[in-house]
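User: Quick sanity check before I run a bigger batch. Here is a single chain. Can you write out its predicted 3D structure?
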Amino acid sequence: MAVVIFASMSLAACGGGNDGGSTQPAAKALTISMYGTPLVSATSPAVAHLQLRATSKAEAATPASGASDVQATVQTLTDALASRGVTANITAQVMDGTTLHQIVIGEDNGLPPTPDQFKSDPSEWMIVNFQLDDMVTPANDPAQQVAINQFIQDLTVFAQRAAVAGKAVFAVAQIPTCDSQFSAAGGVSNAFSRALVAGAPIRVIGGIPLTIVFDASGKAVPSPDTAHLGADCRTPDAYLQNERVQSVADEIAAGYKEAAAAASAASGASSTGT
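Assistant: Done. Predicted structure follows.
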């Protein structure tokens, strides 16, 4: 008996959709702050064989030699959004070295804001790619389960604080790995779902179509998809990283344009007194 994992998540709260073909610029630049692990690795192994999935998106960007993962992430996402007609000012706030838990406990001893502090109409968007401190140990390990529960709590507080500041939080879906049916990457994806159920004001974006099949003994069956995950089965290559960046750009661009259109419609109604 084989176990199959399908990965494909989409933006739920901003309308979703693919507006990649439009080149009409948004009226105003989008301000984005990025937190967590960089989406792009400047030293990621290149795709060693022909791309096996047809795509009309731009090919993976090739950062300049010596460019950091942070710089590569910011530039690649900026370019991807620009190709969709969205001008974005992207800054990397915390991309390496600081865990989500350290960020949260660094303010008010980790306490969440009170409900009456929440605001609407976010003035800035945040893209977060938080991971567990240990992305190797399977998610069904007791210690990892404790870490996942703490991750959910911290992510919820982080997003609540962002909402208080009038900022929307977009959590980037993990790229599935084939090292285990109960991989740490799967644990993070499950944590996002549980955080949403618990009321965390986050929106999950950046999912990509990836199929991983496990045999009866729990080992991944080799396939064109697993070939993109490296010898350790948990290191996405440049092709998968680019697919995720393009997915993030699709959903951010679509949501931002919808928000801009809604704001324009509301402004027009107000000016006519209706």
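The longest strand covers residues 30-36.

User: Great, the batch can go ahead then.
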